[in-house]
Amino acid sequence: MFIRNFALASTLLVSTALTTSAWAQSAEKAGGISNGTVKIGVLTDLSGPAASSNGMGSVVAAQMAAEDAADGLKVEVVSADHQGKPDAGMAIAGRWFDVDGVDAVADMQGSPIGFAVQNLSKQKSKIMLLSGSTSSDFSGKACSPLSVQWTVDTYGLAQGAAKAISAAGGKKWYFLTVDQAYGHALTRDTIEQVKKNGGEVLGNSVFPSRNSDFSSVLLRAQSTKADVIAIASASGDTETAMKQAEEFGLNSSAKIVPLQSTVQDMKGIGVKTAQGAYEVAPFYWDRNDETRAWAKRFFEKAKIMPSGFHAGVYSSVVHYLKAVKATGTDDAGTVMKQMESQKVNDFFAKDGYIRADRKMIHDMYLLQVKKPGEPTGEWDLYNVLQTLPGESLARPLAESECPLVQK
Fold first, then answer.
1. pLDDT in tens, 361-370
2. Which one, of 151, 126, 158, lies nearest residue 58 by Cα?
3. Residue 244 carries which DSSP code?
4. 288 — phi, psi (to 5°)?
5. Quick check: pTM over 0.85?
6. CA 386 to chain centre
7. What are phi and psi of 25, to 5 degrees?
8. Residue 75: how many CA atoms within 13 Å on its side-chain side?
9. DSSP code of 352?
10. What pLDDT does residue 16 have?
11. pLDDT per residue over 256-275, tens digit each?
């Protein structure tokens, strides 16, 4: 592990012997693997507020995917810390593409980072597997032919949250929005769904990332007598806002709703504060035997239970490597066509598929944080209330702003 150009990088080399001459012949026909190695870069937050929900867990997930799906390929995984800075992310990705021979970038924690790197990946003909970039614009007006939004987007989060909270009696909403691309997209998409469900929006306070004092915005929200206070942020900011909301006694008068959160966030907040909170999630480790088995393997390596982002990194990298294997090349256009042609079937998604708007469609889950006394272990935090069909949470293609969608 070493530091270079803003990057904290670690490398895993997974190599197995080529097992069939048929594969070698197909690889030669298709142009083969550049430099004989499929190289995957995990660009993530290794030292900031998303280090638990993404971070080294995303690197571990990609390494596990390489171990499981190499199948005759020589695969190398490198990782880097973008430090929450789009320019740092650009610098890292530029070196990966131009010097280090990286073929695909995974995770891309943070929509500002994702947007900064996306044009570069398109210019350099590199695939982006977006797990931690959640703005719905990645499958909307900013869609790219070589990017796939794999795990979750703000439109799906908004759809699920608005329906669940409205059904539970929440009608008057106030938003706390982090001043970043995904925060604004999450609030925008949720407001749209709140209005569709007959709700009313009483206001929106925008706050800076890594905010430590929410007193003024919480008091403003409280003064409106909103019965829902929706937090459009992630990780550290969500945790701080929810803890301070309890200190101000807002939990007794309003539903505090984290619009984007993870199992790590809720563990940090604690069930006493977070009890009853709804979450729309792409994955929960304790949902069935298959998710528990993979989570156990992950925990042994990462020492935490996996978030949906971690699971999405694994799923996307496995699908990518299967496509490389099937086509015998790491040419981005060829591989992407193969990825589109094959369904995704693993512990993360059943019959998932990549739409024309570059969104991977898969089921999501409505979770609710357990009450104190209910958990049987430190990571036993949620009840799974409902399976939400993937198409029901996706923006209809007829409404899509993605230029790749034919109407």
1. 999 999 999 9
2. 151
3. H
4. -155, 180
5. yes
6. 20
7. -65, -40
8. 25
9. B
10. 32
11. 999 989 999 999 999 999 99
